[in-house]
Amino acid sequence: MKNKRFSKFLVLSILIVFLLSGCNTKYSQNPKLIKEVQFVLGTTGQIQVYSESEETGQESISKTFNRIRDIENKMSTSIEGSDVYRLNENKNSEYINIDEETIYVINKGLEYYYVTSGAFNINIGALINLWGIGKETARIPSEQEITDALQHIDIDTMAIKNNSVMLEDPLSQIELGGIAKGYAVDEATRMLREEGINNALVNLGGDIYALGKRYDGKPWTVGIQDPEQSSKLIASLPLTDQSIVTSGDYERYFMEDGVRYHHIIDPETGYPVRNELRSVTIISDLAIDGDVLSTAVFILGLEKGLELIESLDGVEVILITNEKEIYHSSGVNEQLNIINKEYKIREFK
Question: Could you give phi then psi for residue 75, rounded to 5 degrees?
């Protein structure tokens, strides 16, 4: 079995060059562009800021990465002693006291469970661990294993009392991977603002926030990756003080007998999602919303996904299909620039 992992950051490194190459050269010396890359939250993170001094910019970035690591230390499933680790290891069906921001993210996940009609489920850890996609242990489970795991993802077995959480089913597992990264992007952006940074890009494994505008006064330009050619773009669009998050079947997967098994698991079937979509891109004010909704819309599919986004305020979506068709919500205007002419914009009927 060949286990293949694609990092969104690899493409975003290309995109950053694309973004910055159009900047007015009068800003090339002052203020300074400072950037740093670190491995956080199981992915590659990059923060780049414009600052009047390199020292100030570097200090702001360091503080921001420390904040991200603080979130990781609370919400990681694999760091011993984290809130999520302690919840998942608790087999005594008793309340565990956890940090208030972990409670916030869990409550946000529960809220989105109902908004998405169950498509987004933070109690899906039993299935995520069973498939192991993105790890060396990735495999195709038996039907019986999947059936058994489906018995342990019921959201109603999670109980919250003040700052304590209990998993009533000792075999259930919380998984915040589909929401914590977006929350971390939002917190990183908040931290940069507090540090006086007004122009920056935060990228945590493809969850992006464009803070302010470029120093020439123009919006940042962000690209949408081609699912079939990871180094190329399908389209681009301008972004200012918004997040953009993409989920796709090409990010983490393995191939077996010519079949792609990707990391987006349908909580209804227990299998990787099979529908007409290759990728879903969400544009929103908060990355936590984009993180959740990009996954949920991918699971719901084209029709139900578009219907969901049209029912929400301040959120837009761009969907790429297997047939190289592009669909988008009503708020995505003519500013969407198609780069790869093999892809055609369609209207959903």
Answer: -115, 0
CB 276 within 8 A of CB 302: yes
Residue among 299, 272, 6 at smallest CA distance from 140: 272
- The CA-CA-CA angle for residues 285, 288, 289, to 5°, reads 60
Q: What span, in angstroms and rounded, lies between the C-alpha atoms of 320 and 226?
A: 9
In the beta sheet, which residues pair with residue 158?
167
282 and 306 in contact (C-beta within 8 Å)?
no
CA distance 103 to 110: 10
In a 3-state reduction of DSSP, which class is residue 349?
A: coil
CB under 8 Å to 9, separation ≥6 — which residues?
A: 37, 43, 44, 45, 46, 203, 205, 206
CATH of domain 80-167: 1.10.3980.10
pLDDT value of position 5: 42
| Distance separating alpha carbons of residues 141 and 94, to the nearest angstrom | 30
In the chain, the amino acid numbered 68 is: I
Q: Which residues pair with 50 in a beta bridge?
A: 33
| Token pair of 53 as six digits | 């001094």
Q: H helices of the chain, where?
A: 8-20, 54-75, 83-89, 100-115, 125-131, 143-150, 180-194, 287-300, 302-310
What residue spans define the domains of the chain?
A: 80-167
- What pTM was computed for the model? 0.91
pLDDT tens column, 189-216 = 999 999 999 999 999 998 999 999 988 8
- Could you say which DSSP state residue 265 is in? B
